[in-house]
Amino acid sequence: MDQFILQILNGLDKGSAYALIALGLTLIFGTLGVVNFAHGALFMLGAFVAVTMSNLLTLSHKVVDETRTDFLGNPLQVDVPYLYDIFGQAAGDTIIDWAVPISILVAIPIMVAIGFAMERGLIKYFYKRPHADQILVTFGLAIVIQEIVKYFYGANPIPTPAPEAFVGSFDFGVVLGFDPNAIIYPYWRLVYFFFSVVVIGAVFAFLQFTTFGMVVRAGMADRETVGILGIDIDKRFTIMFGIAAAVAGLAGVMYAPINSPNYHMGMDFLVLSFVVVVVGGMGSLPGAVAAGFMLGILESFASMSAVIDLLPGINQIIIYLVAIIILLTRPRGLMGRKGVMEE
């Protein structure tokens, strides 16, 4: 039972990332009809916003420390962050420690701006082109972004620590009546799951309960009729592209302490997230979220040593096997609209 609960937790962790990225992909496809293969790059850019913010907060200058000497007895020069000069050492250390959560505030406007630039500068010219053209151009854009990040940050992963308050693990075993240390789970992964739930809930609430969201949902169902009513639906869809970019970026920011950011992490998640979108149903927001968590949990169980011993390599293909089965039996996906991908 303890292993079962642990795998559920691992699956929710993976599923949170899949669901957030798939949610953004579905927002773009549902509003603009564009298959955006650059969406994984937006996830990666979000992670590097956290890296950049951490680097900026730790910028320092040399100061002579008379209390410390080298082996010759000369005073040492030490690096002192500029934040110490502005806020003092205690407050400066706290700000540096919370660099990743602080990055959320910076990432939102940056990712929205990047989303606007992508949509207005390139993707709008491919609205009426075949999906194959959209995939090629957005995949090419993803490679360009990836290489730019590699040029400036290098090819190696960059550790980006979580705040010290969330370092360590939570003992679920004691809470659930098991022996101590039976079910240990990292605090930050729990934070990531709850953060994902909040973001997903905020997106759904925005679409469900605001006038803007209601118009967007109407435009997703019948774009021409909304346009006839005199509403500039294209402008609203552009804003939704920016929101989708922000969702992917926030997913990347909070994932940085879990998996050290590297230039190809976007590609690693993109293919799996696109499979999640197809399984959930193209254009279905609830389907994308449900499929993300479901496939994350399945992948987690498939990664258990007992399962791998029985079926070697199953953890690498389980998501694709499930996708094949679902699409053969229900081409529109779990919650897709009737007729989508069924012709």
From TrEMBL:
It is a multi-pass membrane protein. Belongs to the binding-protein-dependent transport system permease family. LivHM subfamily. Pfam families: BPD_transp_2. It is found in: Cell membrane. GO terms for cellular component: plasma membrane. This is Amino acid/amide ABC transporter membrane protein 1, HAAT family. GO terms for biological process: amino acid transport. The chain crosses the membrane at residues 16-35, 42-61, 98-123, 190-216, 237-258, 270-298, 310-328. PANTHER family: ABC TRANSPORTER ATP-BINDING PROTEIN (PTHR11795:SF442), BRANCHED-CHAIN AMINO ACID TRANSPORT SYSTEM PERMEASE PROTEIN LIVH (PTHR11795). InterPro entries: ABC_transp_permease (IPR001851), BCAA_transport_permease (IPR052157). It comes from the Bacteria. Keywords: Amino-acid transport, Cell membrane, Membrane, Transmembrane, Transmembrane helix, Transport. GO terms for molecular function: transmembrane transporter activity.
